[in-house]
Amino acid sequence: MKKFSVFSITLMTFGMLLFGLNRIIDSYSEPIILLGYISFLIGVVLSIIAIARREDGRLKFISLISFFVVLFFITWFESFQVLRIITWLKNIY
């Protein structure tokens, strides 16, 4: 069964939708970006679990590769997103 692979690609898609939503909104929203990053990280963990359990199909590899590609593009085009999240978390705690 490809349960972890499907959940992984679903969370990756949800994270990309959140990043797209932040681009559409006029103001910057830290909670949306934070949820996007958390969604990406959980998606990667589920993809690694799918690889460890040797699930059928290539979906687990597509999810893992897309994580690195999307993070590269986020870093390339919006390099201060990570610093904003870290600063926001630091100010909360």
Automatic annotation (TrEMBL):
Domain of life: Bacteria
Record's keyword terms, sorted: Membrane, Transmembrane, Transmembrane helix
Transmembrane segments: 7-25, 31-52, 59-77
Protein name, as recorded: DUF3953 domain-containing protein
